[in-house]
UniProtKB/TrEMBL annotation, chain A:
<dbReference type="GO" id="GO:0005524">
    <property type="term" value="F:ATP binding"/>
</dbReference>
<keyword id="KW-0067">ATP-binding</keyword>
<keyword id="KW-0547">Nucleotide-binding</keyword>
<dbReference type="GO" id="GO:0005829">
    <property type="term" value="C:cytosol"/>
</dbReference>
<dbReference type="Pfam" id="PF00501">
    <property type="entry name" value="AMP-binding"/>
</dbReference>
<dbReference type="InterPro" id="IPR020845">
    <property type="entry name" value="AMP-binding_CS"/>
</dbReference>
<feature type="domain" description="AMP-binding enzyme C-terminal">
    <location>
        <begin position="477"/>
        <end position="555"/>
    </location>
</feature>
<dbReference type="Pfam" id="PF13193">
    <property type="entry name" value="AMP-binding_C"/>
</dbReference>
<keyword id="KW-0436">Ligase</keyword>
UniProtKB/TrEMBL annotation, chain B:
<dbReference type="Pfam" id="PF00550">
    <property type="entry name" value="PP-binding"/>
</dbReference>
<dbReference type="InterPro" id="IPR009081">
    <property type="entry name" value="PP-bd_ACP"/>
</dbReference>
<feature type="domain" description="Carrier">
    <location>
        <begin position="1"/>
        <end position="80"/>
    </location>
</feature>
<protein>
    <submittedName>
        <fullName>Acyl carrier protein</fullName>
    </submittedName>
</protein>
<dbReference type="InterPro" id="IPR036736">
    <property type="entry name" value="ACP-like_sf"/>
</dbReference>
Length: 581, 81
């Protein structure tokens, strides 16, 4: 596995933030790392203070904080001073609308400057920020707003009309809707309110354990889980940004993730600003030419992207990359799903440096295991645990847990809780939260192994979750939406391998009597699912079956559907009661 | 191949990918991904299907010329001329 080791240049490794992994790991503590952030008086703090205000106070107000590239290609710069004023205005708008400490403020927006202003302005006001991916359909939006108890939402006129307006009667706790453009009944014009608001605001001093960010992740069964993170998490965002992404003050940093996902918030909003970089934000979706132009023109120093995008770049060929040179580029990283060894090596051959894979989850709030700038890379490995993070491979059977110490033995990847950005709970689901912990370990749900050199290798997910284009999708949410269609009797949803997306969502459907499994119905069901779920969650393939494999209790056996789809052994089928036809 | 034929072909391929879209509801001069609520994967599948249908090479480098329904039509009119 490691015969293609990528050895780092010693001189370059020395100038990395984490230049001596073993030494730093031996001495690091989260308590002493706290000196890297300001905090506010009385042991309090606020993420937004660390991200913006402290840099303005130390004379960096003129540095560009955010360079926004509109779809048209036009660029808009916001300096740290601009961002301070705008987020102050936004916080004032919230407070004067009766939204404050502990309230939940959602954003349903594309990557526009208002999204970033709303995120940080919300935190300044002491409210909790929850970003939603704008490609979600109405059903994922509704369930996430219900679970979180959204009190206010920032969105665009277009998204409001298409996805939110019809839901309002079902969301009694939603008091205020702010539109970035357009006019509708019972909404506010954000630009007008911002213009009237004062640009000074005293950032609310929060307790370290006060909730700050709410992200949703998918579960195998039941509704999506609302993952709660606190203001103290900023310490982990900051430190992991320095160590795992090698962020340095003044760097130009491009994280291509949408803030609707945790990567786009922890490393697309918070860490780049606390580390005083200049963030590149591109409104447009993936486009080969545009991405290479952006990397070169903006002189990006550190680039954080995802395997799906890297695979699409590989498909377009190295020549497309070689249109430009990238002398400013220093570090490339990837997250979302394991990065194939081939893609790591392609990075080295094309850019002169490998992509550095790292691993973490919505629940962990920040990067846990990474390939660092100073570290030799074993292509295909996810790297080593960060300083301050203790990882292990465990074998969980029934009520017992055993740590697996033999190298390259498969088990569940587990972490010792205690780092600042660890989730503090799943909203309203204490039992589900407690189930994540056993004998002093947090159980990740991912299967992995660790080699003799301490590098971790991803093996698979231990549940039925689907990872498509880096997004975690719960089969239950997709199945529920399809079950609402009058023709559907039963449905099982699995992920099937795809060269570009990693996996795509495939639904197996058995129809009620009287419905014909033809192309028209297939398209109708596809449209039905897309309308409710949006393109990021809806299935891309639908197959009809007369019957689906089920257990005695009537549970559809997704595992069996998947084994058959992939031509794998069917494993233990003793619980199979009614088989596929 | 007339312009109308090409428009019909695009509408048909779009219907296979995003059958929920009413072609009459979309603004053909606006961003196609926004108008049809399709993502990068959908767009890639659309271009691949059209490329096969017309036997035309539609490289990634040309994607900026296909941003709207109209732009995509113009592009294919030129390609198939």
């Amino acid at each position: 596995m490691a015969d293609n080791l990528i050895v780092k240049d010693a001189a370059l490794a020395r100038v990395a933030n984490l230049s001596d992994y073993d030494a730093t790991r031996a001495t690091f503590s989260w308590d002493s790392a706290r000196a890297q952030i300001d905090g506010l008086s009385g042991g309090r703090l606020n993420i937004a203070h660390e991200a913006i205000d402290r840099h303005v106070a130390t004379g960096h107000g003129d540095q560009i904080a955010l360079r926004w590239i509109a779809k048209s290609g036009d660029r808009t710069d916001l300096t740290y001073a601009d961002l301070q004023k705008q987020t102050n205005r936004f916080a004032n708008v919230l407070i004067s609308s009766g939204i404050g400490r502990g309230d939940k403020v959602y954003a349903l927006l594309g990557r526009v400057p208002e999204l970033y202003v709303a995120a940080l302005g919300t935190l300044k006001a002491g409210a909790v920020f929850c970003p939603l991916f704008s490609a979600f359909g109405p059903e994922p939006i509704q369930s996430r707003m219900e679970i979180g108890g959204a009190n206010a939402v920032i969105t665009s006129g277009r998204l409001y009309k298409r996805k939110l307006k019809a839901l309002r009667e079902h969301l009694p706790e939603l008091r205020e809707v702010f539109l970035t453009d357009g006019q509708h009944d019972s909404t506010h014009d954000l630009a007008e309110l911002m213009a009237q608001a004062s640009d000074s605001f005293e950032t609310v001093a929060m307790n370290p354990e006060d909730p700050a960010l709410l992200h949703f992740t998918s579960g195998t069964t039941g509704k999506p889980k609302g993952v709660s993170h606190v203001h103290e998490a900023v310490l982990a965002h900051h430190v992991t940004g320095r160590f795992a992404l090698d962020l340095k003050p003044g760097d130009v940093f491009w994280c291509t993730a949408d803030p609707g996902w945790v990567t786009g918030t922890s490393y697309g909003v918070v860490a780049p600003l606390t580390n005083r970089t200049t963030m590149i934000v591109d409104e447009a979706e993936f486009d080969v030419t545009r991405w290479y132009d952006t990397l070169a023109r903006e002189a990006v120093n550190v680039w954080y992207t995802a395997p799906t995008a890297i695979r699409m770049l590989m498909k377009a060929g190295s020549d497309a990359a070689r249109v430009h040179e990238y002398p400013a580029l220093r570090f490339m990283a990837s997250v979302g799903e394991p990065l194939n060894a081939k893609a790591v090596i392609w990075g080295r051959d094309t850019f002169g440096m490998p992509f550095h894979d790292n691993w973490w989850q919505t629940e962990t709030g920040g990067i846990m295991i990474a390939n660092f700038a100073s570290m030799d890379v074993k292509p295909g490995a996810m790297g080593k645990p960060l300083p301050g993070i203790e990882a292990g491979i465990v074998d969980v059977t029934g009520d017992s847990l055993r740590e697996v110490t033999e190298p390259m033995t498969i088990g569940e990847l587990a972490l010792r809780p205690g780092w600042p950005s660890m989730m503090r709970g799943y909203l309203h689901e204490e039992e589900r939260y407690q189930k994540c912990f056993r004998d002093g370990w947090y159980l990740s749900g991912d299967l992995a192994m660790c080699d003799a050199d301490g590098y971790y290798w991803f093996v698979g997910r231990s549940k039925d979750l689907i990872k498509s284009s880096g997004h975690l999708i719960g089969p239950f949410e997709v199945e529920s939406a399809l079950m609402e269609h009058e023709a559907v009797a039963e449905v099982g949803v699995i992920g099937v391998p795809d060269d570009t997306a990693g996996e795509i969502v495939k639904a197996y459907i058995a129809l009620k009597p009287g419905f014909e499994p033809d192309e028209d119905l297939r398209l109708e069901l596809l449209g039905h699912a897309r309308k409710r779920l949006g393109p990021a969650v809806a299935p891309r393939e639908i197959a009809f079956r007369q019957n689906l494999p089920k257990t005695r209790s009537g549970k559809i056996m997704r595992r069996l559907l998947k084994a058959r789809e992939l031509g794998l052994p069917e494993g233990d089928i003793s619980t199979l009661e009614s088989d596929e036809a | 191949m007339t312009r109308a034929d090409i428009e019909t072909a695009i509408a048909e391929e779009l219907h296979r990918i995003a059958p929920e879209i009413e072609m009459n509801d979309i603004d053909r001069s606006e961003d196609l991904r926004d108008e049809c609520d399709i993502d990068s994967m959908d767009f890639l599948n659309l271009v691949t299907a059209l490329g096969q249908r017309f036997g035309a090479a539609m490289p990634e480098a040309d994607y900026p010329q296909m941003r709207s329904f109209e732009a995509l039509t113009d592009y294919l009119v030129e390609k198939t001329a």
